């Protein structure tokens, strides 16, 4: 069996031709780097979920409520 030769890429640090940097206005390099290094989990909410959570505080409150409910299940009266 012969292995197919793979093309070596000498320009790994360059962007592809289809990326138009002129359209990328307002971006800040490393904007979240310090939070990432600090161990903060950044997540992207789906648009349908994001409608209900306008800010970080509302997401955290909802998650803490869910965690509390999971730790203390409801007891049904007999």
Please indicate the percent range of residues in DSSP E strands (runs of 2 or more): under 5%
Could you name the ranges where pLDDT drops below 50 across 5 or more consecutive residues?
none
Shape, principal axes of CA atoms: elongated
Give me the secondary-structure category. mainly alpha
Run of helices and strands: HHH
Strand-helix topology:
Blueprint: H1 33-37, H2 47-50, H3 56-71
Description:
The chain is mostly helical and 78 residues long. Helix content is 32%, strand content 0%. The chain contains three helices and no strands. It is elongated.
Notable characteristics:
78 residues, mainly alpha, 3 helices, 32% helix
Brief characterization of the structure:
The protein is mainly alpha-helical and 78 residues long. The protein has helices at residues 33-37, 47-50, 56-71. The chain has a domain at 44-73.
